[in-house]
Write a structure and sequence with these properties.
The chain is mostly beta strands. The protein is 0% helix and 49% strand. The chain has no helices and 11 strands. Strands 2, 4, 5, 6, 9, 10 and 11 form a 7-stranded mixed beta sheet that branches. A hairpin with a 5-residue loop joins strand 4 and strand 5 (45-51). It starts with a strand and ends with a strand.
């Protein structure tokens, strides 16, 4: 059974930083592309970032490019999202998600989602 457990969210001031983690289990982590997707209150899901199975290729939404960095540790079955220069509009519930190979579109669909971790950017 695929399990994804996101953590690391919290309350931060504009301009601050947070690092999200996603612990994965129940599948061969190093063979799966991984993504971060967020959903702000009253809005639909928004794709944020993708990293391929080997970690050599990364993709970012324009809204976070240059501020967020996705990474993974295949030895620890863990996905990360380093978020810097946070803005109020980054406030959302952040999900990690995955899908089995082969590779697909970075925007989705993503078959398996974790439970989400809340990020709130406020002064």
């Amino acid at each position: 059974e695929v399990q994804l457990q996101a953590s690391g969210g919290g309350l931060v001031q504009p301009g601050g930083s947070l690092r999200l983690s996603c612990a994965a289990s129940g599948f061969t982590f190093g063979s799966y592309d991984m993504s971060w997707i967020r959903q702000a209150p009253g809005k639909g899901p928004e794709w944020v970032s993708v990293i391929n199975s080997g970690g050599g290729s990364t993709y970012y939404a324009d809204s976070v490019k240059g501020r967020f960095t996705i990474s993974r540790d295949n030895a620890k079955n863990t996905l990360y999202l380093q978020m810097n220069s946070l803005k109020i509009e980054d406030t959302a519930l952040y999900y990690c998600a995955t899908r089995p190979p082969p590779h697909g579109l970075v925007t989705g669909p993503w078959d398996y989602w974790g439970q989400g971790t809340q990020v709130t950017v406020s002064s």
